[in-house]
Design goal:
The chain is α+β, with helices and mostly antiparallel strands. It has helices at 2-16, 24-28, 50-53; strands at 20-21, 31-34, 44-47, 59-70, 75-79, 97-102, 114-123, 133-140.
Length: 142
Amino acid sequence: MSKILFIVFSIVSCSLFGQENLGWKKLISTQYEIISEGVNQGLYKPKFTQELKNFENQEVIISGYLVPMDVKNDTYALSMSPFSSCFFCGNAGPNTVVELQFTKKQSKFLVDQFVIIKGVLILNRFNPQYLFFKLENAQIHG
């Protein structure tokens, strides 16, 4: 009987806490190169680690600073660093920001508002016009 209770509790625990904490250390381990020719010349091409690939299409939790990209269209990014020292200001790499695709329209956030976000991690291998990382079905967590 105790084995059955243990198994049931283990299954329930896994389903309740299925999302993984995704630290910035895993994201910034992504190497990248600058594309040297063609239409996308000067943009970045990522080289994802196997450890990060293991998180792909998984629900994750990550914290950081909100950076509005297009408030009218509800487009935000999450940055490892505050706006004054983030990728968009030229003070960090493209592996320090994550595009956020929220499940529902958000009220306006403050620039540099520190948040914890939950969403499904998507790795962008093919379109250098977008960020390396995206959280789909994103929502404020906690």
